[in-house]
Amino acid sequence: MRLSYLPPLMVYIAYGIQGLTAIVGTFFVKDYLGLSAAFLASLGFWAGIPWALKMPLGHLVDLIWRHKAGLVYLGAGMLSASMLIMLGLLAERAAMDAVMPVAAWYVLAALLAPVGYVLQDVVADAMTVEAVPRVDADGRPLDPVQRRLMHTTMQTLGRVAIIGGGVLVALANVFLFAGVETMSEQDKIDTYILIYQLALVIPLISILGVALAGHVRRRDLRRLVAGGLPADEARRRLTPPTERTTPNWWILGGSLVFVVFTLTLGLTDVPYNQEIIFAGSMAIVLFLMSRLLRVLESQARLLLLGTALIIFVFRAMPGPGPGQTWWMIDELAFDQQFLSVLALIGSSLTLLGLFLFRRFMAERSIAYVVVFLTLISSLLYLPIIGMYFGLHQWTANVTGGIVDARFIALVDTALESPLGQIAMVPMLAWIANSAPDNLKATFFAVMASFTNLALSAGQLGTKYLNQLFLVTREVRDPVTGAVSVAADYSELGMLMLTALLIGLILPLAAVGLIKLTRLRSA
Known about the structure:
By secondary structure, the protein is mostly helical. It has 2 domains: 243 residues, Growth Hormone, Chain: A (Up-down Bundle), CATH 1.20.1250; 251 residues, Growth Hormone, Chain: A (Up-down Bundle). The protein contains 23 helices and 2 strands. Helix 5 runs antiparallel to helix 9. The chain is globular.
């Protein structure tokens, strides 16, 4: 661990602690909004679109590198606005509803947050490259092998920061939701309000990270000058001269087309507008990638494309959607505190898994890692599906009530959680080590834009599954208490089984395709 690593880690920690509001958001939507599972999956698609803009934003960071802090401040402003909207909906719902429907406010908050996070994340990604020093304390160049190990450490710590933030917020939620089963409705709302007030620290942490980066640079410069180096030479050693980054108008122009195209379709009621946006977005991102890939050698291009394809398919798998969580809340009686405990176990063991699997990540190819994770994740999803068909009732009868639904959920979460971040670390380390000095943010964002579109594809798939298998939870009018939508989980079992089979077959097929072609994986 080095002090120079801390600035990007602080931005990552800010992203990690966004989970502070996740459980509140789940119960707010379930109890106070009548939005369908398919609509929420569609909203997830729109929330994922900003992440597809990481490539042009990365290029923009390269162009305005000296002023990158401005993007972090802008992102912090959007995050604050999103949280203040949710605070208003909880504390002053009637006043907010008089201005705009509550559902519209929620959608606005849900879309502001990812834009804010992506602005900060694209700066943090490039800062991880800069955070790895080029020279030792005396100004002597570091060995390339040592720098490669430091890049791996930096990327591992980045995942640790994100997951560590998740551990902190899970601990906070366990404490804040203590005794939730005896809380009145107003007490629950007061707790929700407190959580969103605490969440306002998130944008502040990222701003402090940027400020610390400036301090570290000035400290290193003063140390080299104090060691006898002229100021100009000290600056050159800390940041060697690189080729000046010139605007890539293909990237900037294509990105402008992408934004106009997305906003035009998004604000109109065109049939299949999400599918059109996804197809158009993919075409634009692939075109922008093709322009940037020209700076790479032939083998490096094949390696980059093969790696991107495997990660894309792996991340594009649809899930069951919010209906599974609603079922756990209604049928298995999982309350806010128990969901917080599951999050705490998951985050803590994921953090531990990053260290336990460090050699595994370093020594295995991404294709091997994806196959391993696909098989293990599919196996560990079976107990959750089994509980839908009564597995927990049978195990509780056999064990005298010990192995009940909560026991199964705890064990399954403990086994599955360390696997979540493993696939990302070797990919990120390879990108950081391969990034050209004058295009570090752009190069980092190339892979991110493509693979983040996979999450949008996964949300589309989730929407389709929820349209095919209809799942509803009970929705009551907050004033009259009248039931407007009845709970119906009869099709949830087939929904989960279908998601399992798709998530098992397609990633294995993608790896097989790479093995049968000229493409390679990192």
